[in-house]
Write a structure and sequence with these properties.
- It is a single chain.
- By secondary structure, the chain is an alpha+beta fold.
- The protein contains ten helices and 14 strands.
- The protein folds into three domains: 128 residues, Beta-Lactamase; 76 residues, Helix Hairpins (Orthogonal Bundle), CATH 1.10.287.130; 163 residues, Histidine kinase-like ATPase, C-terminal domain (Heat Shock Protein 90, 2-Layer Sandwich), CATH 3.30.565.
- Strands 1-3-2-7-6-5-4 form a seven-stranded antiparallel β-sheet, sandwiched between helices.
- Strand 5 and strand 6 form a beta hairpin.
- The longest helix has 38 residues.
- The radius of gyration is 32 Å and the shape is elongated.
- The protein starts with a helix and ends with a helix.
- The structure holds adenosine-5'-triphosphate (ATP) and magnesium ion.
- Magnesium ion binds next to helix 8.
Length: 373
């Protein structure tokens, strides 16, 4: 590069910087006092653009240059700039027009929201805002709502199908068929309850209002409560639940209902992700003031590069997403429950071999020990 060239480039850069600082304009058409314009709008993160009666950009603040690019702004027709991105109208009221358009950002496309306000003499003021982050949030919200609706639909369809049979034929039905039907109704209702409970807990964990009430409780009792929900899942896949509790590994200091929820989530994962006819083992042993519980399956395991994300809300492995439903909430809730009670939770998984989830809960002290204190 010659000295001349670099001096030229430097002065071009200085001019651009000056333009950014002071704002751009077409001197002869300046509709607002440029100095006022610059002072008022220089610090704004929204782009502000003024167009004349021909729709030509006469002034723009630094944010507008940042968002829309330096070269194409001042002296060009604003509407022509928008044509490239194919803006869509969002709202139109007296003198105000709100539009959205895609525009190229550093690495990918972003979303712009533009509000154009008519001024006297055919001029117009346009605010340009980068709403990519809000648009992304909105997209995630919609996606989540669709997933929730999808998850709710299966048990609701089950309930409706069973209820239709009751309405049509309950009085003439043999007792055993009626019992089967009642069982199906209960399963669908329990599945709905589980889903709604997970959704509500995810909300209260996020809001910081999640609570547990720890007291002396029996692990076996929590497990048997969870069976009402899990047993039908295991049965429908021909899976067997094996319990291996050491004799002194039952009494813990925990919220019994919450422990039931942990079992329901972990065993339903084991059943959901493992193939038919496999075994799910629930083991408990006592270790230094804690009881360590393990729920192990003979399923597909979890890819190593995904294992550190399993407790994140909404995370679902790419390997199972298509094959089984879920919202990606279960493990994050289990972790919140276990941590709130002073325990810990971890996953040990070998792709192709199966997954074991371990969690600990403080061991309840014997009445005799308490009496000694
Ligand atoms: N036993 C398991 N075997 C294989 N993958 C598992 C197992 N448990 C969890 N995973 C993986 O971890 C992800 C997160 O599990 P989590 O229980 O939090 O959510 P989910 O089962 O997808 O949905 P939800 O529990 O909210 O219905 C699952 O989507 C799955 O990819
Ligand atoms: Mg789950």
């Amino acid at each position: 590069m010659t000295e001349e060239q670099s001096a030229e480039e430097q002065s071009a850069a200085e001019r651009a910087a000056e333009r950014r600082r002071v704002t751009g304009r077409r001197r002869e058409d300046a509709a607002l006092d440029q100095a006022t314009f610059a002072e008022a709008f220089v610090a704004l993160t929204d782009g502000i653009i003024l167009t004349d009666h021909d729709g030509v950009v006469v002034s723009a603040n630094p944010a507008a240059f940042m968002i829309l690019g330096e070269d194409s702004l001042v002296g060009n027709v604003f509407e022509e700039l928008l044509l490239v991105s194919g803006a869509t109208r969002i709202q139109e009221t007296d003198g105000h027009l709100v539009r959205r358009a895609w525009f190229p950002r550093e690495e990918r496309m972003g979303v712009l929201e533009m509000m154009s306000t008519s001024l006297p003499g055919g001029r117009a003021l346009h605010t340009v805002r980068d709403v990519t982050a809000q648009a992304e949030l909105l997209r995630l919200k919609e996606e989540f709502l669709m997933e929730v609706a999808h998850e709710l639909r299966t048990p609701i369809s089950g309930l409706i199908a069973s209820l239709d049979l009751v309405v049509d034929d309950a009085l003439n039905m043999p007792r055993n068929e009626l019992a089967l039907l009642a069982g199906a109704l209960r399963r669908s209702a329990l599945r709905l309850e589980h889903l709604v409970e997970n959704l509500m807990d995810a909300g209260s964990i996020e809001a910081g209002t999640f609570q547990v009430r720890a007291q002396t409780a029996s692990l076996k009792h929590s497990l048997s409560e969870a069976m009402a929900f899990i047993h039908p899942m295991l049965e429908s896949k021909g899976q067997e639940l094996v319990k291996a509790f050491e004799p002194d590994a039952d009494r813990v200091l925990a919220d019994e209902r919450r422990t039931t929820q942990v079992f329901a989530n972990l065993i339903s994962n084991a059943s959901k992700y493992a193939p038919e006819g496999t075994r799910v083992t629930v083991a408990a042993k006592s270790i230094e003031g804690y009881v360590r519980i393990t729920v192990a399956d003979e399923g597909p395991g979890i890819p190593l590069d995904e294992q550190n994300r399993l407790f994140q809300r909404f995370f679902r492995s790419r390997t199972v997403r298509e094959q089984a439903g879920g919202l990606g909430l279960g493990l994050s809730i289990c972790r919140a429950i276990v941590h709130a009670q002073g325990g810990d939770i971890s996953i040990d998984s070998t792709p192709g071999r199966g997954t074991s989830v371990h969690f600990t809960l403080p061991k309840a002290r014997h009445l005799a020990e308490e009496a000694e204190d």
